[in-house]
Every structure is written in C-alpha cells, then in structure tokens.
Amino acid sequence: MSDTVVAARGRSTLSLHKLGVFCGLAAAVWLGTAEAPTKLVNAGFSPFLISMGMVMGAFVARWTVPTLLKGTGFLFADLRDKPHLIVWALLAGMLWAVANTLTIFAVRNVGLAIAFPLWNTNSLVGLFWGWLLFNELRGSSIKEWAKVLGGASAIVGGAAVLAFATARQSDTPGKAAVGIVAALGAGVLLGTMYIPYRKAYISGMNPLSFVTIFTFGELGTVLTLSAIYMGGFSQVVSELHRARPMLFWPFVGGFCWVMGDLFQNFAAKYIGIGRGIPLSNTNQLWGLAWGALVFGELAGLGLYSKGLVITGSLVMIAGAVSISMADPGASELVNWRKAMHRECDRYGLDTQKVALVVAGDDPLAEHPPVRRWWEAVIVTVAVGIFVWLAIGTRSQHLSISMPWMIVLVIGTILPLGICGTLLWRRTRFS
Amino acid sequence: MTRAKLISIFTDVHLWVPVGVLILGIFLLMSLR
C-alpha cells in the first residue's frame, strides 16, 4: 500500500505501483492466452460444458500453484488468522460463476460484438466500488482522476471497437434485449466481485490463500448451474463423459486462466481495483493476437475492419499507458490506510502486521515453507489429471501458424518469468 | 469464530452489497431460462 514502508532486508525496492502495473499487464497476457486452447475444441459441445471444463481445470490449478509456491502450512495459517474472509472468497467465486453463465447467454443472443464491451464495463463498476467502499482515488488530484477514469474508459472503448470489428453475427437473431440485459448484468456482477478482492487484501490476506477458497464457490456454483440447465447432475456427468476426448483443452485454458487470475489478484492488492482491473481487462488484445496471428481468424476481414482493429488496439494501449502513469499520491495513500485501519478495527486484526503485509513485507514470508507429504500428493494428482486428459485428446483440425505460435508462447512465458521474479524479489509472493 | 465477529460480518455493508448483486444476478439468470 505504501512505498514509504521500508522493504524487508534483501528485498527489491521496486515501487508497489510499478509492481502492480506489471502484474496487471501479465494478468492480461495470461487471461487472453486462456482463450486459445478452447479454440481447439470440436464443435458440437455446449458452451456450459466448455465453461465447466475450464472451471474444473482452474480448480485443479488453484490448489496446486499456491501449494507449490507457499505450502499448505502458510495457506492454512493465513486463513486461520482471518477466518471471516472465507465468506468473501466464496462469495467472489459465486459471483464469477453467475456472471460467466450470463456471458454465455449474452453471446448467444446478441453476439460478441455487443456483449463483450457491455460486460467489459465491469472495470468501471469496480472503479466505482473501489472509490465508494475502499477510498480509492479519494484525495487524488483531477489529473490522477483523469488518468485513471480516462484510461479505464479508453480500455472499454477500445474493447467495443475491437469486438465490433472482429465478431461474427449471432446465430440467433432477436432476443436482443435479453442478451443486452445479460451482458450488463455480467458486467455488474464481475465489477462487484472485486469488492471481496479488495477487502481481503486491505485486511492482509495473501492472494494465494484467497484464490484457494474462491475456487470452491466458483466450482460449486458452476456445477449447480450446469445441473439446472442441463437437466440434473447425472446428465452433467454423462455429458462430461462424452466430452472426455476434448476436455484437455478447456483444462489447459483453465490453467492459463488461473495464472492470469493470480496476477490480477496481486494487481488488485498493490494498485487497487480501480487501476488493476482495467489493466488486466486489456486481455482482449492478447486473445485477438492469438486469433489473428495463430489461427488466422482475421484473414477474411476488409480494409475497414482491419483499420478498426488497429484503432481499437491503439485506444486500448493508450488507456493502459494512462493508468500505468497514475501513481497514487500521498493524500490518496492516506485514504487507503484509513480503509485498512477500518478493517483492522472492525475485525480485531493486528494493524502493524496487516500494514506490513499490505506493503508486501509479510514477516511470515521470510521463513521458507515447511513442506508436508500431502503437498506432493496434491501436485502429483494435479499433474496426473492433466497427463490422463492429454492421452487420447482430439482437437479440431485448424490451420495454425507455427512461427507465430512460438512467438506468442514465448511472449506468454516471458511475463510469467519476469513478473514472477519481481513478485518474489519484492514481496516473496506475499 | 466469536459472536462479536459474526455480528461484525453480518452488519458489514461489504457483505450485503455483493450478496444483493448476487441475488439479483441469480434472479436474472433464472428469468433467462
């Protein structure tokens, strides 16, 4: 929260704002890449099933990555220290699941061109909640307001232009009002999901502990909704069995999603939801890069549409640059600290300790994690699931540009390495 | 968890805003079936 807190001995002195910006941009890369594997799924499967496959892959990864990085001992200690936040982590997972189902309806009814920009307004909703409930941007100058609000609006506007230029028409014309309401509803739900995020992080919770609980709310709600829409749990199981040859791809997508989600959570922690979420919402650019360069999806576009793609991308990049330069001033940081103190008073938390964690200097993170035997079991089972799914996997026959795929895979792994190293050196993943 | 902490949770506006939005979202979803 505050860069004035001296970094622990041996740690990097990178400013938390810069760290949060890197995390937001790395989140965008991984969230955008998460779309790529699902393109290999053969046609004929329900979007619910593909979404559920991603959530199941995410469930496996959300347990494995935090266990690898911090160990279960650290995660359980963190949860025992702030048990009240379990409610908010579950709630956030449920909000995500309902929002994601709404987006399926939205795309089905009005097509991606209209639906995507509408639910991308979630960053503006998050910005509003950040200001109202957590004092974000309070005390900042008009210039900072303009950078953040202008940047977030530019990212939503760029998303609108990109979606308009690239999306195909909906298969089911009509029912437009229903689709628009569903997309707007998804935007409000996703924007509201960031309330639990921010609450957890100003209370000193570790993002890795948060996502470990989040995933139970997410998977439970998605399974329930799928059972309702597909005619019962037995039907869900039967459909999953039928989809076995393609499940690997949504699982890989779910894994990429988790990596992006983790970076997004660290961004929400270190620069707040008003700045962090719009940055990670530039994921559409990376999804577009995979679609255009690797899968050749824009090959049939005319000059006008290609111009729109370039314009939309440039507007989005300008928005991200604007937010990256909106460093919170001293008076805004005072208001952030007030919000933190309010949480500490309300839930009887150790203010000094929370202040250290919020500043990326968790004292517990200095101790190497004590490894338990079941952590090896968790990792082995997770790897085993991915290997089992990979065996006998079939994919849609698509022509793929291998050179571009190599470039984008490198472009995806690089931010993971760079941002992971920065997070470790500055915060020890705290 | 102590009774005082439970009261703190259930009187927290940070809980009821997301819960309210979640309920509205579920109603919306059910109406789309």
What does this molecule look like?
The complex is a heterodimer of chains A (430) and B (33). Chain A is mainly alpha-helical. In chain A, 76% of the residues lie in helices and 0% in strands. Chain A has helices at residues 16-33, 35-38, 47-70, 72-81, 85-119, 122-134, 142-166, 176-202, 207-230, 233-242, 248-280, 283-294, 303-324, 330-347, 351-358, 373-390, 402-427. The longest helix of chain A has 35 residues, at 85-119. Chain A is globular, with a radius of gyration of 21 Å. Chain B is mostly helical and 33 residues long. Helices cover 82% and strands 0% of the residues of chain B. Chain B contains two helices and no strands. Chain B has helices at 3-10, 13-31. Chains A and B meet through α5, α8 and α9 of A and α1 and α2 of B.
The profile of the biggest β sheet of chain A is:
none
Approximate strand percentage of chain B: under 5%
Looking at how many chains there are and whether they match, the oligomeric state comes to heterodimer
Q: How widely separated are the two ends of chain B?
A: 39 Å
- Give the % helix of chain A: over 70%
Secondary structure category of chain A = mainly alpha
Molecular shape of chain B? elongated
Radius of gyration of chain A: 21 Å
Through-space gap between termini of chain A: 12 Å
Mean pLDDT level of chain A:
89
Query: How many β-strand stretches of chain A?
Result: 0
Strand content of chain A: under 5%
Residues in helix, % of chain B: over 70%
Mass-distribution shape of chain A: globular
Main beta sheet of chain B: strand number and arrangement? none
Concise synopsis of the structure shown:
The complex is a heterodimer of chains A (430) and B (33). Chain A is mostly helical. Helix content of chain A is 76%, strand content 0%.
